[in-house]
Amino acid sequence: MPAHEVPASAASPEPTPEQPAASKAGRNLPAAIGVGSALGLGVILVLVYAPMVWVGVVAAAIAIATWEVTKRLGEAGIAVPRIPLLLGGQAIIWLGWPYGATGGLGAFAGTALVCMVWRLFDHGLAATPRNYLRDTAVTLFVAAWIPLLASFATLMVQQEDGAGRVFVLMIGVVCSDIGGYVAGVLFGKHPMVPRISPKKSWEGLGGSLVFAIIGSVLTVTLILDGNPWVGVLVGIMLVLTGTIGDLIESQVKRDLKIKDMGTLLPGHGGLMDRLDSLLPSAFATWLVLTALL
Predict the structure, then answer these.
(1) Where are the stretches annotated Disordered (predicted)?
(2) Other C-beta atoms within 10 Å of 12: how many?
(3) 274 & 230 share domain
């Protein structure tokens, strides 16, 4: 998810008639705003009128994101056992409903074991597996990266004021993204990690912190009736984990030599390109709110 970015060079080539003009930060801004608004409205309606439907929304999202990532890995020659990974991801999400964190962690362990065995024999009992260690390591990385981290978003909705807790997460991430985008485009001059994500700037990071802290303080106090200092901590954690999540996906895409994980969402890329900062932020928000509220 692009945030706190350095403006693109003025020497960049003009877009062709077939390609919509991108913003200074490299987005097709009208498409990005339209898609983001539609997704946000859908989340609001679910959380207000049917909070437990959120579990199904997350389950569908991680299935699509996992498919996108495994497809890209397959194109790079990495043999990830897609079927047990997809089914295991669903188990991680849905077993958290009746059994809480224990169910999710148990399903993750089971998924890891099944994937290791599947990769061992996916070419038959007589064949010798190739790149077994690499492929299983990447598989476990994907299982932890997508369904395990996403499961904390579903654990939150089952808690007291669960819908409100998810609102704190979503609004905080949106505020961080908006603050980083605005500050990065207007003031971004000093790249933060140019070898991984050259458009990210320290000025944008500052904008993310300001917006995320303000948004989190307001949501924690007004929605959850919590201490404002909890909101400050949530805002800081959301920016740190969101930035880390964004950088992780950027490095994965660099390793795979691709620009986006998919093309499902105009202006954003694939669904995974939208979830990159949300996944670690879900865990951070769950941890802070569970410990302090």
Answers:
(1) 1-24
(2) 11
(3) yes
Between the CA atoms of 26, 31, 32 and 34, what dihedral angle is there, to the nearest 10 degrees?
160
In-domain check, residue 200: yes
What is the model's pTM? 0.86
**What pLDDT does residue 26 have?**
52
The pLDDT of residue 243 is 95
Tell whether 62 and 114 lie within a shared domain. Answer: yes
CA–CA gap between residue 230 and residue 227 (Å, rounded): 5
Q: What is the pLDDT of residue 264?
A: 82
Q: Say whether both 220 and 247 belong to one domain.
A: yes
Q: What is the 3-state secondary structure (H, E, C) of 132-154?
A: HHHHHHHHHHHHHHHHHHHHHHH
Q: What is the mean pLDDT of each run of 10 residues along the chain (293 residues)?
A: 49 44 54 69 89 95 96 95 97 96 97 96 76 96 98 96 95 92 91 90 95 97 96 97 95 94 77 92 97 93
Number of domains in the chain: 2
Question: Are residues 138 and 233 located together in one domain of the fold?
Answer: no
